[in-house]
Each structure stands twice: as C-alpha cells, then as structure tokens.
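Checklist before submission:
- one chain only
- standard amino acids only
- sequence pasted in full

Submission:
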Amino acid sequence: MNLSELIISQAPDGILFISDSDAIMLANDALCNLAGYQSHELVGQSVDIFLPADLRRLHAQSRWAYVENPQHRPMATLGELTLLRKDGTTLPVEIALSRVVDAVESGTIAFVRDASETKKSERQLQHQATHDELTGLGNRRSFTQQLDQALLQADRTGRQVALLLLDLDGFKSVNDSYGHLIGDKLLVASAKTLKAHVRASDVVARFGGDEFVVLLRDIEKLSDAVVAANKLVAALSLDRMIDNVSIKTGCSLGIALYPKDARDAEALNRCADLAMYQAKAQGKGRSIPFSSEMQDMIQTVRLV
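Returned file contents:
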C-alpha cells in the first residue's frame, strides 16, 4: 500500500470516487463503515446504491450539472442529505465535492461525514429555544408562532380561536412554605394536568412563573371555551400529594375569543389577561370570559 492509499484508508471521513460513467471506483474504510458495505460490494456499482429510488433521477440531474459546471463545494454546503445504508436505514450526512479530470479516468470525489451528532445537537438547541426547560411545554416564543398560525386558519375557516390564560392560585404560598423544589414539582404536575385535559389539537404552553396559556383551535361558540376552561379549573383545584406533602391550589383563568374580542394576537393576549385578573378579583378558583367592560379595569398591581 503506497502513501496515498494509506492516507485514504486512514481518513476519518468517508471518501468516494465516482467516475463520469457513474461507477464507484473507490470507497475507503470510513465510507464502508458508514454505509454498512464491504469495499468489494461497492466498487463498480452505481452511486444510486446510496439513494432511495425516488431521489435517483434528481440526483443524476444534479450530478451532471456539477460535472458540466464544477465548483468548489465545501463540507455541509449541499443542504439536508441522507445516505441509504445496506440495511435499509438512512444516515444524515454532510458532503463535500471535488472534481478530478484525468487522462485515464475523470470523475468526482465525494467526502462524506456522519452528521448524526450535529443533527442531534441542532434538534436539542431547537427544542431548548422553543420549550420551557422545567415542564417541557412550549414557551412563549413557540406559542406565539402557533397562535399566529391558528388565527390565519380561523380567518380561512370562519371558526373562532379561544385563548385561555391562567395563574395558579396560592403558588407563592407553596414556594414560601415548602420551598422551590416542591413549587417546581407542582408546576410540572400542573403542566401534565393541563395537557391531559385538552384535545390533541390544542396547545398548552408556559409563559413563566406559574402562568400558563392554552390555545383552543376551531371553537364554534363561547360556551365551548367556557366548558373547556371550567374543566381545567376543576382539574387544577384537586389536592395533590407531592413528596408526601398535601398541596391545595387552584387557578384563575381568563378567556378571550378571536375574532370576537380581538383582531390580532397581541390584543387577544391582553383581553385574556384582563379576564384572568378579573377572575382573581372575584375570588379566584374560577374562569371568566372577557367582556368589553373590562377595558376600564386594568389593574396596576397583580393579585397573588
């Protein structure tokens, strides 16, 4: 084995040499490990062996476009790519291309890198950016996006969207009496309760502290939202045992409807917020729909 062959065989990334006749002329050990093949199983085969059948025609067009106009294509600049392995599974990969023109054999060198860990890290970062770390619910950012989409859909269907905004009653007392660990566990339990009492198409998020929000899509009338809200209030008002401590809390919930109460997401949030504080002012442990009279009831100090 000469020096060039030794370097290729020891390269950490997969290396393929594909002739202009579409035959694999070389596949190093790293590539064989990625794809699950032995080298002799690949040499002479079409590069299509690494592609699902529905992508082979498009790949052939892209490959010939590259042959006719070869340009330097560094690693990870070719978009989302997958490698079809021998066992039928797929592997996310990053690929760099280089053109070789020789009197004996012209072709393309593909440098192939396993992108599994990169993709995993990207998914984790995306999840962290859009979800509440404690409860696993969506955060304000992701909820706002889903609310905007729901409002657009409501405009198309002529149905309504309900926004339910709620605070846990007595949460500060739980934190003060039993500590933040119990308080955090109460928040997690409350999140699970909310998820368990809404439809699969509805959205539950945590805005921070003990403030949660629920998006009810495709609502026909206010009474439908009220029924759903009352179920949530009742479920969150049950006694809980957390670390052998009996916890008694409830929730105050405000309801706002789109487009009845507001014509955009920001105004809808304000309406639900006003209704929630009206529920607190009326004794807590209840849900209250927004009404136009509440516009003059904006409180400057939040009730506990």
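Reviewer check: Residues 31 and 127 are 31 Å apart (CA to CA).
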